[in-house]
Write a structure and sequence with these properties.
Blueprint (H helix, E strand, L loop, with lengths): L3 E7 L3 H13 L5 E4 L8 H4 L3 E3 L6 H8 L1 H24 L11 E5 L2 H17 L4 E4 H7 L7 E5 L2 E3 L2 H14 L3 E3 L4 E5 L2 E4 L4 E9 L16 E10 L4 H7 L6 E4 L5 E5 L5 E5 L18 H14 L8 E11 L6 E5 L4 E5 L5 H16 L24 H23 L5 H9 L2
Parallel strand pairs: 1-2, 1-11, 2-8, 4-13, 11-18
Antiparallel strand pairs: 3-7, 4-6, 5-6, 9-10, 10-11, 12-15, 12-16, 14-15, 17-18
Helix pairs in contact: 1-7, 1-10, 3-4, 4-10, 11-12
């Protein structure tokens, strides 16, 4: 373990690795150390659905109220460019992560979902986000699912293999002279350096916290983000004939317009990887390996996917996994750096972090180097979310939100109309 460095980055996921990557690209002489408690990509970075998307958990209107319409538009533009930047950056250093830009297809599988989808297109038109409406025939040509009323399609998304991306970034950082040290658990960080779990210290002028859901384990940080679990399943590789009957020929990632978030992709080895929310939040923001597996959620994901795509009936599901993502109290991701203390941070991506982490890494690199650039002027820079409520209010609120989302979908299945419970969900989450 080095006793000192110019920059210490705590966390070997996408945020930490992109930060180190861009710092070393700008200043190759910097001594940059990335400290990871387990292995690179151990957290959400290695376990996610692989959507490199311009999706953002905060509405443009919310951004505009805080910083003005021009700043909100700049944020949306930066996110769209970031999708392509991930492709450019990985190609430039030979990182094969299965990057394929096919866009996002979100099916409307009921009249209520179609109403929400059309509203999303109108909202997209207002803000120039590029989402368009596909009629039922156009949607089914792309993905031959059941009960298709139409779909929204946005071109600003790519698919990647997330673990390959994390491993490739770590290699690229090392090739540029950075040190990526695994099995190096940080117990605390402060201006001037970090303290490891075994008592060793590393001093540094700049210390970057890039711990996402695991931020809740750091002293004094338990209420900064709520670790909420998302789980996934994957099929065996599918034969060409099965793919002919399903679609996704353009390698679109896919979802639908239900309230409980689901997401899928056609993987680099021709499986379907499919995930969703629904696992409970655990009291006290606890994170444990056992929480990665919820058999009820895995069974629900299996049933949801085969209900959407009956072509998968009889297909083996070979993998199941999960992990926590970080949610700030106002659903607002943030990135920041205090030049007086040398402390920086980024996170709270609400599951939309595969692209946003790249933007965060570029932004942190510029902030650390004291450069004023277009990305350092974006409205998420310096944003401070209020803290989550203390327990048991946090446990009650987060799990109530999860239950409301399921109840809203059930209401729509019964009535065929947009759920009144959806408004209650929005009020509870503030989203």
């Amino acid at each position: 373990m080095p006793p000192s460095a110019d920059v210490v980055v705590v966390g070997g996921g996408f945020t930490g690795l992109w930060t180190a990557f861009y710092l070393l690209a700008a200043e190759p002489s910097l001594d940059v150390v990335v400290l990871e408690a387990e292995h690179v990509g151990f957290g959400a970075s290695g376990r996610n659905g692989g959507w490199v998307s311009a999706l953002w958990p905060v509405s443009p209107e919310t951004l505009a109220r805080r910083s003005g319409r021009a700043a909100a538009s700049a944020m949306l533009d930066a996110l769209r460019d970031t999708v392509d930047e991930v492709g450019r950056a990985t190609e430039s250093v030979g990182v094969d992560c299965g990057f394929r830009k096919g866009g996002t297809l979100a099916l409307a599988r009921s009249s209520a979902q179609a109403e929400r989808g059309r509203a999303e297109v109108r909202h997209s038109d207002e803000w120039g986000m590029g989402t368009r409406w596909l009629d039922a025939g156009e949607a089914a040509e792309r993905l031959a699912a059941t009960d298709v009323h139409g779909a929204t399609f946005n071109p600003h998304c790519a698919r990647v293999h997330p673990r390959w991306l994390a491993d490739g970034l770590a290699r690229a950082v090392r090739e540029r002279g950075g040190r990526v040290l695994e099995r190096s658990r940080v117990a605390d960080l402060a201006p001037g350096g970090v303290v490891l779990e075994d008592g060793r210290t590393v001093t540094a002028r700049h210390v970057i916290r890039a711990t996402e859901a695991w931020t809740a384990r750091l002293p004094g940080q338990r209420r900064v983000v709520a670790p909420v679990y998302s789980l996934m399943v994957a099929t065996e590789p599918l034969a060409p004939g099965v793919w002919d009957s399903i679609g996704l020929a353009g390698h679109e990632v896919f979802s639908d317009h239900r309230h409980v978030i689901v997401y899928g992709q056609r993987t680099v080895d021709d499986r379907i990887a499919f995930g969703g929310r629904g696992a409970p939040y655990h009291f006290g923001s606890r994170i444990r390996p056992g929480y990665d597996h919820e058999e009820r959620v895995f069974a629900d994901l299996h049933a949801t996917l085969t209900g959407m795509l009956p072509q998968l009936t009889g297909v083996n599901f070979t993998h199941a996994w999960g992990g926590p993502l970080g949610i700030a109290r106002d659903w607002h991701p943030s990135v920041g750096y205090d030049p007086a203390t040398g402390l920086g941070w980024a996170g709270g991506y609400v599951g939309d972090g595969v692209a946003a982490t790249n933007l965060a890494g570029r932004t942190l690199a510029d902030l650390v180097l004291g450069r004023r650039t277009p990305v350092t002027e974006l409205p998420w820079v310096g944003h401070r979310s209020r803290r989550w409520e203390p327990e048991p209010l946090r446990w009650l609120g987060v799990n109530a939100g999860l239950r409301l989302a399921s109840a809203a979908d059930a209401e729509e299945s019964r009535t065929g109309r947009p759920a009144r419970l959806g408004r209650a969900l929005s009020a509870l989450t503030g989203h």
